[in-house]
Design a protein that fits this description.
With 380 residues, the chain is an alpha/beta fold. The protein is 44% helix and 16% strand. It has 2 domains: 2-175 and 357-379, Rossmann fold, CATH 3.40.50; 187-353, Glycogen Phosphorylase B (Rossmann fold, 3-Layer(aba) Sandwich).
Length: 380
């Protein structure tokens, strides 16, 4: 198949999944065309079956804000026509689903029929999509999509409850590429960070308020009083300054390291003993799954799709949002005995394997095929 993929080219979950999906499809022999304003962050090597089409937005004095939607639509029309794409897959509803709808209709007027699939990732439904400035367009473009997928049952339920949806939503979960996310020998890293054999806890996020990064540090403070530990805070965002200030006020700077954005997250997960995710909203919990693939158990909230990944009492523990004390108690229960810790590690890894990219890719291929066939029947 010739497949077009539209996504945000950043470190966010939707862009990561879209890019890894495209790379996986290319490995299976499909031609994959990425269409976006920058090369996706995870698209970091040459592949004979992968093509990148940059969307360049002209900066005219007339425009206070450059009309990216319009330029992207025109680029999609050009790529679909000249590369003879079979299907277009857009990730994140805003604005990509609406743009795909416009491109499809422009091409239809020229006698070219191409279906598009919209994948919902989370905040495009639960946060941004609820804004009245976007809501009518989001609802319309979801219903006008030829196919709609969501990354979790939780997100599917949220979409149906928050919008008037007539279209069927297929759940295809996020996935892990085990060629990258796997536990490796990084003992020299661990000795540098925890020279006295301390346990290492890790949190990864974009440090937005919804991630509750202060909960991570407050939980760690309790854990560290009973079990000597270090905390690695990976990522950056608006809550980082507050978190760093909290550490300074409580004399925790020697125990907590803020590492900023990291490309090789898997190397840091390889030295982790526990992953912490106290989010008040998560459509899936991809960061937790990446940790589990590296044999790291997870202490998390029970928000959104996280319980579909992290199994309470097996791969880690689920807690009520904001219940820092319970999270700390559960963290200590995992870390205090090596044999128990090892059991959680192995069960986390076994659970992660269920989301292996090789298990999920065929679901997308089958879904594409069904959408293309439905389109062909409709046209004929």
């Amino acid at each position: 198949m010739n497949i077009g993929i539209v996504c945000y080219p950043t470190y966010g979950g939707s862009g990561v999944i879209a890019t890894e999906l495209g790379k996986g499809l290319a490995d299976k022999g499909h031609n994959v065309h990425f269409i976006t304003y920058n090369r996706p962050a995870r698209l970091d090597s040459f592949h004979a079956n992968i093509f990148y089409h940059e969307v360049r937005v002209a900066d005219y004095p007339l425009f206070e804000y450059a009309p990216y939607d319009t330029v992207l639509t025109s680029k999609l029309v050009d790529v679909i026509k000249n590369q003879q794409l079979d299907i277009l897959h857009v990730h994140y509803a805003i604005p990509h689903a609406a743009v795909a709808y416009m491109a499809r209709n422009i091409l239809k007027a020229q006698g070219i029929h191409i279906p598009f699939v919209t994948t919902l990732h989370g905040t495009d439904i639960t946060l941004v999509g609820q804004n009245e400035a976007f809501r009518p367009v989001v609802e319309f473009s979801i219903n006008e999509s030829d196919g709609v997928t969501a990354v979790s049952e939780s997100l599917k339920r949220d979409t149906i409850s928050n919008f008037s949806i007539q279209n069927k939503i297929e759940v295809i979960p996020n996935f892990i590429d085990f060629s990258r996310f796997t536990k490796s020998d990084k003992d020299h890293f661990k000795k540098a960070i925890a020279p006295n054999g301390e346990h290492i806890l890790v949190h990864t996020s974009n440090f937005r308020p919804v991630k509750r990064v202060l909960d991570v540090i407050e939980m760690f403070q309790i854990v560290n009083t009973e079990i000597p530990s270090k905390l690695l805070m990976i990522g950056d965002g608006p809550e980082r300054e507050k978190a760093e200030a909290f550490c300074r006020q409580h004399a925790m700077c020697d125990q907590v390291r803020f590492l900023g954005k990291q490309d090789a997250v898997e190397e840091l997960l390889s030295i982790a003993d526990l992953f912490v995710m106290p989010s008040e909203s998560e459509s899936f919990g991809l960061a937790a799954l990446e940790a589990m693939a590296c044999r790291v158990p997870v202490v998390s909230s029970n928000a959104g799709g996280i319980p579909e990944v992290n199994i309470h009492g097996e791969t880690g523990f689920l807690n009520e949002i904001g219940d820092v004390k319970s999270m700390a108690v559960h963290a200590i229960s995992i870390l205090k005995q090596e044999d128990i810790h090892q059991q959680f590690r192995e069960k986390a890894f076994a659970r992660a394997k269920q989301f292996h990219i090789n298990n999920i890719l065929p679901m997308y291929e089958d879904y594409y095929t069904s959408i293309i066939q439905r389109q062909q029947v409709a046209v004929s």
